[in-house]
Amino acid sequence: MKILKALLLIVALCNAAGVHAQKVFASAKYTQMCSYYGEKVTGDIHAFKPDAKAETVIKNIMSVIGLKANFELRAANVPNAAAVVLKGKRYILYNPKFMSSINTVSGSDWAAVSILAHEIGHHLNGHTLDKVGSRPQTELDADEFSGFVLNKLGASLTDAQAVMETIASIKGSHTHPPKRDRLVAIATGWTRANGNSQANTAAVAQVKTTSRKQKPETKPIVKAPTKSKQVEIKTQPTRAEKIQQSAKYNNNIASDAYFSSDPKGEYYLTKKGNLVQVDKDKVYMIAKLVRSNKAGYKMMLTDNADTNLYIGHGGVLMNDSGNKVGILRARR
């Protein structure tokens, strides 16, 4: 019953649209912000009152930790979600469209709740008071809090980690830690909610990225030594090598993609219109090629989460602000 109640509230939150009139809430020119992806927010922030049922989700999160909310919830035009302090007052801001899409992308109805719990964790841990913003350790603290809360609400560890498993950066950044560390932090909080004093040890064992069994190394085929005592060694290519080789020669790839923010990354646009990233033995779906919604561009790449890249002359990739962020180079 507890899980069903939470799921019904999640649906209500994700369907909450901005039916209230928007107004300028504040300027984004402040540093007391911990945003979910760590991106810089610029310009004016428009906010409006959230749906009453969305506020109920927040109340349920607070009820399982036995505290009163020391912040206010607002729907806003932020890219995703953020914990902010404005004129000494704490707020949780969230983008209704982002919340609606993240459940679909991650495949879990707990996704939106875990994001809100993460942002609440920033406020309760005092992260928004130092005027620094997001950084790896504070993000891990908020991730652990999120795992703890979702366990108390009835979510499984898989559900608690669903968003991070889907959208977290493998390598991390100067503001956010890599995916593996974040999954461990969520699992630590989730396990601690069960009253396990060995939470961290148990959490590491449960993280998907560390629980996969390593494939045994392929033993080389060694022929009998010749008179010169030389041996011939034949090894099978690894999965990573096979993927790299496929990406290099695969006829299904239409273009190579290059981004200034990740010059060493390997990105490809397939002939089916999928922008993918290859990282060692994994292939990640990044965006989809669709018709442009902006004048002057015929096509664009979109991740269906308010991020669009417009394809200009010569394959140049432009963001919403008109800045060049990369380029597509067709294969011959």
Describe this structure in words.
This protein has 332 residues and is an alpha+beta fold. It is 35% helix and 24% strand. The chain has helices at residues 2-14, 52-63, 96-106, 111-124, 136-153, 157-167, 179-192, 199-206, 208-211, 239-249; strands at 23-27, 33-35, 44-48, 72-76, 81-86, 89-94, 221-222, 233-234, 253-259, 266-270, 274-279, 282-291, 299-302, 308-311, 316-318, 324-330. The longest helix has 18 residues, at 136-153. The N and C termini lie far apart (58 Å).
List keywords for this structure.
332 residues, disordered N terminus, eight-stranded antiparallel barrel, 10 helices, alpha+beta, 16 strands, globular
Distance between the termini: 58 Å
Strand content: 15-25%
Beta strands, count: 16
Largest sheet at a glance?
8 strands, antiparallel, barrel
Q: Structural class from helices and strands?
A: alpha+beta
With strands numbered from the N-terminus, the spatial order across the biggest sheet is 9-10-11-12-13-14-15-16
User: Would you list the SSEs in sequence order as H and E?
Assistant: HEEEHEEEHHHHHHHEEHEEEEEEEE
Strand and helix map with partners:
Layout: H1 2-14, E1 23-27, E2 33-35, E3 44-48, H2 52-63, E4 72-76, E5 81-86, E6 89-94, H3 96-106, H4 111-124, H5 136-153, H6 157-167, H7 179-192, H8 199-206, H9 208-211, E7 221-222, E8 233-234, H10 239-249, E9 253-259, E10 266-270, E11 274-279, E12 282-291, E13 299-302, E14 308-311, E15 316-318, E16 324-330
Parallel strand pairs: 4-6
Antiparallel strand pairs: 1-3, 2-5, 3-4, 5-6, 7-8, 9-10, 9-16, 10-11, 11-12, 12-13, 13-14, 14-15, 15-16
Helix pairs in contact: 1-2, 3-6, 4-5, 4-6, 5-6, 5-7, 6-7, 7-8
